[in-house]
Amino acid sequence: MNILLVDDHRLLAEALTGLIEARFPDAQVHQAGTLADALRLLDDRFELVLLDLSLPDATGMEAVHAVRTHAPQTRTVVISADDRPDTVRAAIELGASGFVPKKADSRQLLAALSATLEGGVPLPPALLAQAPSPAVDTTHELTPRQRDVLRLLIQGQSNKLICRHLGLSESSVKTHLEAVYRRLGVSSRTQAVMAAARLGLKFPAA
């Protein structure tokens, strides 16, 4: 399992790398201190990108957008000191499939990473408290194809990529998304990701 850690704080990056590799022996953590270095390294080898929002050559959502554009099929989890709800939602809207505050302790960080690798969505507890959630989890009533669509949505995939992965037309994907939204009691992709996180849904990569 290859993970790309993008953070310009060298000591923190080294500490996170040691923590991750100790907990996940099969993980190989590669480091980049700038967005430019990250984009040069990033290819199909990587299953996951851990991305800081404050880099020397990019700040805020610029980095998320660049990574998601360059490697749209690779899951991206943001690790940032800025964990305001608006910041977290903006990252999700751009395709991030998780967000971990830098103030999280090692146990919380590893739990978030485990959830990501198991197909879940780690989000700050404060945001989860605001997330929509149906009174009863009815996602078990989704069809297999609808579950596939939800799994790819959680991974941050665009409608276009979902079409390509599943061999479906754009109209079919939109129809499946509408069904997923109804089950989750939401009206947008971002709300769906938040609801999935609140419900603790996990969809391991197929």
UniProtKB/TrEMBL annotation:
Keywords: DNA-binding, Phosphoprotein. It holds the Pfam family Response_reg. SMART domains: HTH_LUXR, REC. The modification 4-aspartylphosphate is found at residue 52. Residues 135-200 form the HTH luxR-type domain. InterPro entries: CheY-like_superfamily (IPR011006), EvgA-like (IPR051015), NreC/VraR/RcsB-like_REC (IPR058245), Sig_transdc_resp-reg_C-effctor (IPR016032), Sig_transdc_resp-reg_receiver (IPR001789), Tscrpt_reg_LuxR_C (IPR000792), WH-like_DNA-bd_sf (IPR036388). Residues 2-117 form the Response regulatory domain. The keyword Cell division does not apply. The keyword Methyltransferase does not apply. PROSITE patterns: HTH_LUXR_2, RESPONSE_REGULATORY. This is Response regulator. It comes from Pelomonas baiyunensis. The lineage of its organism: Bacteria, Pseudomonadati, Pseudomonadota, Betaproteobacteria, Burkholderiales.
